[in-house]
Automatic annotation (TrEMBL):
Lineage per the UniProt record: Bacteria, Pseudomonadati, Bacteroidota, Cytophagia, Cytophagales
Protein name, per record: GTPase Era
Region annotated G5, chain positions: 151-153
Assembly description: Monomer.
Membrane-topology descriptor: Peripheral membrane protein
Length: 295
């Protein structure tokens, strides 16, 4: 039975691309739910991480980085950000140490009534008075910030200070999800995200941004999970790059993804991957709908 003083609410993790939102969510959850790479725009979907305690449930949303849309894919990504801000009980606005205020990206936060904790990330890279200087800078730039917290999502430094602050902002409410769940996403989704992470880590330039991963089949047997995945690219020339000489690049991605899947699913995995062309999929709404970016 849920106690009458149980707290439950939604926390949206937002900010520009590549400021460490996914790393922060993974540290807050103690699970690698969001894929991470040094490249910007790695996160494309809104991913919920459900943190359950004895008398609380916090539903974190890791969102795509805020940007000016260039494709229909970007429009879909920004709609996830908009929805996550609308249903949030608290907002973690993440900036990195070198970030500065940009009117077109940060103006929207000045109009929100939802409590905002500004999180200055990457303090492990700070020199001299840089952290204190940045605290003063952001206090001046966005006046309705509830509090400024400094962390390193990479090392975990001071990340644990966020939970009590967020709990104080959560309403009394029964849990929104069963208390043994830790995400709203399916196993198929995580399988595709693990492959996509390896693509971001193994390829350069436009290739990671031009690829999408679809799981054709996910069959769980007593001792093994058999997964068949298709990596889609936008042009025929990209197909050869993804496959590599005698299939070497694709084989490397497959091996690395399989290893992480076995760790994530705690089971032996058989993974087969194929590469296909879906012309200009980032700009075509039909294909974005097919890949789950649009309703």
């Amino acid at each position: 039975m849920v106690s009458s003083s149980f707290k439950a609410g939604f926390v949206s993790i937002v900010g520009k691309p590549n400021v460490g939102k996914s790393s922060l969510m993974n540290k807050l959850m103690g699970e690698n739910l969001s894929i991470i790479s040094a490249k910007a725009q790695t996160t494309r979907h809104r991913i919920m991480g459900i943190l359950n305690g004895e008398d609380f449930q916090i539903v974190y949303s890791d969102t795509p980085g805020i940007l000016e849309p260039k494709y229909s894919l970007h429009d879909a990504m920004m709609s996830y950000v908009k929805v996550s801000l609308e249903d949030a009980d608290a907002i973690l606005l993440v900036v990195s140490l070198e970030d500065t205020y940009e009117e077109e990206l940060f103006e929207r936060f000045k109009k929100l009534g939802t409590p905002i904790l500004l999180v200055i990330n990457k303090i492990d890279l700070a020199k001299g008075t840089q952290v204190n200087d940045k605290i003063a800078y952001w206090k001046n730039a966005i006046s309705n910030i509830r509090e400024i917290v400094t962390v390193s999502a990479k090392t975990g430094e001071q990340v644990d200070t966020l939970l009590p602050k967020l709990l104080s902002l959560m309403p009394e409410h029964p849990p929104f999800f069963p208390q043994d769940e830790y995400t709203d996403r399916t196993e198929r989704f995580f399988a595709s995200e693990i492959i996509r992470e390896k693509i971001f880590l193994n390829y350069e330039q436009e290739i990671p941004y031009s690829t999408e991963v679809s799981i054709n089949s996910f069959k769980e047997e007593p001792d093994i999970i058999r997964i068949s995945a298709v990596i889609y690219v936008e042009r025929n020339s990209q197909k050869g790059i993804v496959i590599g000489k005698a299939g070497s690049s694709l084989k490397k991605v497959g091996m690395e993804a399989r290893k992480d899947m076995e760790s994530f699913f705690a089971k032996k995995v058989f993974l087969e991957t194929h590469v296909k062309v879906a012309d200009n999929w980032r700009k075509e709404k039909f294909k974005l709908r097919q890949f789950g970016y649009l309703e």
